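thought: user wants a sequence for this fold. calling inverse folding tool.
action: design(structure=
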């Protein structure tokens, strides 16, 4: 029943059926009432007519026998008559059936009929009389008493009576016909209701199936419009809606993909918060940053934000205004911008954009250190150049030998300034990527050994033993720029010799480490302290703080070496134990021959 009631066909069928049933019920009741009244009036008219005819026959004919024969012919089959010239006494009668005497006695003794003998009034009454067909059974009869002229002062009465079973049978047949007609009407109504409902709901069912397909995302679903009425127009509108939905969903997906691509490609971290401070959306940089915060804090909470950001989020959600600050979080610097998100007029959340300023701070510090270091490095030679040149101009040197010594110092300091400027230019080119490398495949053993042997004389002069060792095959090769690698080797070997005391040794060793060739320069000199070791590849950093004229370098050699090795897709590092020596090593990719 629920299935029928929940369907359009069932609802239409039940509605039409109830409407037709109600109309048929009202029509049947009114029709039966009308037919009952009509039959009663017809019976009364017939009885009155027959009574008048009987009275006229008796008045017109003197012979009673012939009058009774005529009366028997004209009255109906179901009608009987009693003629009484005196009250309580029947003179003549026509009775077809049983119980005639009892019937006549009850009719003649009925008090309501006695006034008919004295007046010209006709009386009709429904009475219970013995049955015409069965003994000891009473039936309903309609009895008409009409005056019959028999004398001047008094007159007789003709009684005509008819069983109401005839009328009941007629009413029953009529009722049966009416109910049969109603049943046929209900069947036809049901058939046409289902037919009409099916015609209406068939396209509706198709549209329902199409709507489910649309809900699944199949926007190419089409519903065939089989008519031009409202349902056909609805099908056309449904197809147009499907096309519009497909277009709008495609536009939304495109915008979503564009937004996702923009968020994914952004270097800044973007985090979207709900009103309850939960994270709704974050791009990859933001997810990486959140994971770092969780890892550092050891937090497993759903909200890994630092307290500073939570305070900013509370401010934005509470006051509904944008806020921008630069904070130091976990040793890193971030420029953070919080903006409220609105849904209509109410705030529904906030979006945070975090720009990592750590590199800018580092570069700013490097710039400041660079300016300070350059100023420091240039100040000494410039002061010496200025002082000695003024002494020469003022003829301070008494002898030619003193003037020559001052000129030599001026020359050495100018060379030192030239080396510093050259190193700065080389470092700037390397860091900017403008320095071109001329790579070629070179056998490592022969190349590194040649670069090492160039320092044999310098090592002897410093009473240092210089040795070359290798554990790789002679055919092992790498693709490199020999001049730049020689610049690295020169810097590392020169540093090792300068910082190795007399009777010390420097060993240049070549060995294989997985897919790389490891070239290390090892000495047993004074070593580098742990606090200085991590800064040796920075510009202008000098582990030996003494800047002597003879051995003082520019502090840029290791920084240049680091950039050259990185340009060769290698790695450079240093290991040292203070008082026991230092080892500088760099890795170069081996070339498969």
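)
observation: tool returned 593 residues.
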């Amino acid at each position: 029943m629920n299935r029928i009631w929940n369907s359009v066909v069932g609802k239409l069928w039940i509605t039409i059926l109830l409407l037709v049933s109600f109309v048929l019920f009202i029509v049947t009741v009114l029709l039966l009432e009308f037919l009952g009244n009509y039959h009663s009036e017809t019976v009364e008219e017939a009885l009155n007519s027959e009574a008048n005819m009987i009275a006229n026959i008796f008045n017109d004919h003197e012979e009673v026998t012939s009058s009774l024969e005529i009366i028997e012919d004209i009255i109906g089959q179901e009608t009987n008559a009693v003629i009484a010239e005196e009250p309580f006494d029947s003179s003549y009668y026509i009775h077809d059936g049983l119980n005639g005497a009892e019937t006549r006695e009850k009719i003649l003794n009925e008090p309501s009929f006695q006034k008919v003998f004295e007046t010209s009034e006709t009386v009709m009454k429904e009475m219970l009389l013995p049955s015409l067909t069965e003994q000891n059974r009473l039936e309903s009869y309609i009895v008409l008493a009409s005056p019959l002229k028999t004398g001047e002062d008094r007159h007789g009465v003709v009684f005509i009576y008819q069983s109401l079973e005839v009328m009941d049978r007629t009413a029953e047949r009529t009722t049966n016909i009416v109910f049969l007609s109603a049943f046929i009407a209900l069947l036809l109504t049901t058939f046409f209701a289902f037919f009409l409902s099916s015609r209406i709901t068939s396209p509706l069912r198709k549209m329902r199936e199409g709507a489910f397909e649309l809900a699944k995302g199949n926007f190419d679903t089409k519903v065939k419009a089989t008519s031009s009425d409202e349902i056909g127009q609805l099908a056309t509108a449904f197809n147009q809606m499907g096309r519009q939905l497909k277009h709008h969903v495609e536009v939304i997906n495109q915008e979503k993909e564009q937004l996702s691509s923009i968020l994914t490609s952004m270097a800044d971290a973007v985090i979207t918060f709900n009103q309850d401070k939960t994270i709704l959306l974050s791009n990859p940089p933001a997810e990486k940053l959140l994971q770092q915060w969780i890892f550092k804090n050891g937090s497993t909470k759903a909200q890994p934000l630092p307290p500073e950001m939570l305070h900013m989020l509370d401010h934005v959600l509470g006051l509904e205004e944008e806020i921008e600050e630069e904070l130091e979080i976990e040793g890193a610097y971030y420029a953070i911008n919080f903006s409220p998100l609105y849904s209509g007029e109410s705030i529904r959340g906030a979006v945070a954009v975090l720009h990592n300023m750590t590199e800018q701070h580092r570069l700013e510090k490097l710039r400041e250190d660079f300016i300070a270091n350059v100023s420091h490095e240039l100040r000494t030679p410039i002061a010496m150049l200025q002082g000695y040149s003024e002494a020469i101009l003022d003829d301070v040197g008494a002898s030619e030998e003193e003037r020559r010594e001052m000129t030599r110092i001026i020359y050495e300091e100018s060379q030192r300034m030239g080396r510093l400027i050259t190193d700065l230019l080389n470092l700037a080119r390397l860091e900017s990527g403008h320095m071109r490398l001329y790579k070629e495949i070179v056998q490592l053993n022969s190349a590194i050994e040649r670069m090492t042997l160039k320092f044999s004389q310098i090592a002897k002069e410093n009473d240092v033993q210089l040795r070359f060792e290798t554990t790789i095959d002679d055919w092992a090769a790498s693709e490199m720029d020999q001049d730049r690698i020689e610049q690295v080797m020169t810097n590392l070997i020169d540093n090792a010799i300068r910082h190795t005391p007399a009777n010390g040794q420097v060993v240049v060793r070549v060995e294989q480490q997985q897919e790389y060739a490891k070239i290390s320069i090892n000495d047993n000199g004074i070593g580098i302290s742990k606090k200085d070791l991590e800064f040796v590849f920075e510009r202008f950093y000098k582990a030996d703080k003494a800047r002597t004229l003879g051995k003082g370098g520019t502090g840029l050699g290791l920084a240049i070496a680091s950039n050259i090795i990185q340009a060769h897709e290698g790695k450079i590092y240093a290991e040292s134990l203070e008082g026991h020596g230092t080892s500088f090593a760099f890795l170069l990719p081996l070339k498969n021959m």
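thought: summarizing for user.
answer: Here is the designed sequence. The first strand starts at residue 79 and ends at 84.
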